Automatic annotation (TrEMBL):
Organism: Paramagnetospirillum caucaseum
UniProt protein name: GDP-perosamine synthase
Family in the record: Belongs to the DegT/DnrJ/EryC1 family.
Pathway: Bacterial outer membrane biogenesis; LPS O-antigen biosynthesis
The protein's required cofactors: pyridoxal 5'-phosphate
Active site (UniProt): 220 (proton acceptor)
UniProt-listed InterPro entries: DegT/StrS_aminotransferase (IPR000653), LegC-like (IPR026385), PyrdxlP-dep_Trfase (IPR015424), PyrdxlP-dep_Trfase_major (IPR015421), PyrdxlP-dep_Trfase_small (IPR015422)
Substrates-to-products reaction catalysed: GDP-alpha-D-perosamine + 2-oxoglutarate = GDP-4-dehydro-alpha-D-rhamnose + L-glutamate
Amino acid sequence: MSSLPAALPQAIVAAMRSVLPAGRCGLHEPEIAGNEWAYVKECLDTGWVSSVGSYVDRIEKDLATYTGAARAVAVVNGTAALHVALHLAGVRAGDEVLMPSLTFVATANAAHYLGAIPHFMDAEPHYLGLDIPKLAAHLDRVAIRKNGHVVNRETGRVIRALVCMHTYGHPVDLDPLVELCAAWGLKLIEDAAESLGSLYKGRHTGNHGLISTLSFNGNKIVTTGGGGAILTNDPALADRAKHLTTTAKQPHKWDFVHDEMGFNYRLPNLNAAMGCAQLEQLPSKLERKRALAASYAAALAGLSGLRFLTEPDFARSNYWLNVMLLDDAALLEPVLDATNAAGLQTRPAWRPMHLLAMHEGCPRMDLSTTEDVAGRLINIPSSPQMAGEP
Ligand SMILES: *Cc1c(COP(=O)(O)O)cnc(C)c1O
């Protein structure tokens, strides 16, 4: 079945409807189907609702076990996790931080909070991750080594760290990226907010750099209402993360002594309780999200004029948000219109970071692929509860 461009929006609606349940379908809705009520009620019954409690300890252990990271530190949201991760990586005012332009604004905001400057990198068009060969060529052109630092020769500023992001749950090709960061001496941070449950060559994302971050926002695969976590395989760094996110208070029976500037970023026990219950359901969510993605792939395969994004062969993706890439950018609005009018919530990519007014003066490489794909990309309903029986 091929379709004329003018008919494509309605053909897409029909294909999506053949996969999805009747009624309105949101983009990614929370699914609360397990022990959430019991665990949250226990917090309410015992009064352990706030910054201390057994569920905070438990979610940190559960996350470490699940991801294979040595340690996890639970925090109030993914943005806070990134803020502290960059701080721990040594990012300071006036430094540049390499990051994708195709990302949620949190990645860039975290750098701003430290007075650092985002330096935007381009995406590759297949899985929307980082274009690593293009980045390598860019660094060869603009970066020099000076006094043990990497310096941007155009701005004179130190490039301290690189944040990669596993876009919509599809892992970046980490092996060559780790190699490139090592060659330049750049600290690697994984913004794994979207990739809980995604594996790179069999190993969970968030294990490949110095430190990485997760988000448990309402639209993520696991939610605590709001929440996040820091992952690291360096126990000393994890201890620092815990200390910094709990106001840098020295343990003492009654004295309040803070040995450095800290953050009040700890995840409340109430939210952690919900997260523990959500994590119990993660394997089932992942299975159903894969089934949904497979159904979409089959239903959309018959349409010419678009590509449904599937996982890279080096990875197993969580399919957090499913993606259609249209061939023709002129059809972006008509498809968004037709799908949303039919009760199927869809949305375009985030406006690329380098096109936001606040980033006008930020350094960047050529971002033509990011601009191209951002003009053709549509996220489609992806909640696990929308999958039929697997
Ligand atoms: C969700 C998300 C975050 C963190 O968001 P919070 O709402 O602060 O938890 C960070 N980066 C990316 C790419 C995200 O998608």
